[in-house]
Design goal:
66% of the residues lie in helices and 0% in strands. With 67 residues, the protein is mainly α.
């Protein structure tokens, strides 16, 4: 059986490589944002930080799931 990372976290290595910031930093930015809705946060990451939709969606989904 494979122990491969699945779900949103599977995007994390490519996010760090492409955008040059650790995932922990992105998550802290999401948590400190005044925005609270999933798609608002995704749109913000895309427009303000240049992330692609899939990467932004993965970060937001994983961060919000942590509570």
């Amino acid at each position: 059986m494979s122990d491969a990372v699945k779900g949103p976290a599977s995007y994390f290595p490519s996010i760090e490589k492409k955008y040059g910031r650790p995932v922990a930093e992105w998550k802290e930015m999401i948590r400190s944002s005044p925005l609270t809705k999933h798609m608002e946060l995704v749109s913000w990451l895309k427009t303000e930080h240049g992330l692609g939709h899939g990467h932004a969606n993965a970060l937001v989904a994983h961060t919000l799931a942590e509570g």
